[in-house]
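Entry 14. Structure prediction run on the chain below.
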Amino acid sequence: MAKHLFIMRVLIAFSVLIPLSLKAQNAPQFLLTWQAENFAPGSYEGRMIPTRNTQIRVALEELQNGKLLDLSAQDIHWFVGNELYQSGRGIHNFSFAIPSTAAVEETVRAVLVQGTGEREARAVIPVADPEVVIDAPYPGATVSPTLGSLTLSAIPYSFNVSRLTDLSFSWAVNGVSAEGVVADPHLATLSLSGAQTGDAIAITARASNPAQPLESVSGKVIVTVQ
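Output returned:
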């Protein structure tokens, strides 16, 4: 009986030691996160996608068994593409601008050097062109000629500005310049005077960033009178 108890105690101890030893052997894992500092409307719930010249903030953390490890003594080298941007001890936060020559994505890497060995964390950041979407709140983009006027809004995405008022807007109807609302130039109220059933009205809105002349993009919508 004593022999059986001894064997059971050994088995119980062994079954406890196995998961503990496996847990102790969990390898550290990197967590590399990024955030783009450009514009999207307040109603946008997705991730901000940068464009060229957008400032990016990157953070590096290392986890082991669910706990953050101290990186203050680590030599960390930050690369954008294949170019070394910054190096130093304990630099686990890093900022850079998406290069103006970037295509559809950019890679950022953190290389940790310890002795003769290296470990690396990387993230691939998508790069988008600025975009303007015209919100025409009419089902099927069709209106009645008795409506009198159209009310539209130009919604910009991915511009390198902090707020909507940093952008300038211009409107055109069938290629002819039109005025936006003076107080809110991203809005436009356009008259339907003279419109007839069957007319297709092409409305264009252009958003421009005065601080970066290359950031000037148009959006277009066609509203049909029925």
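The longest helix spans residues 2-24.
Filed with the rest of this week's runs.
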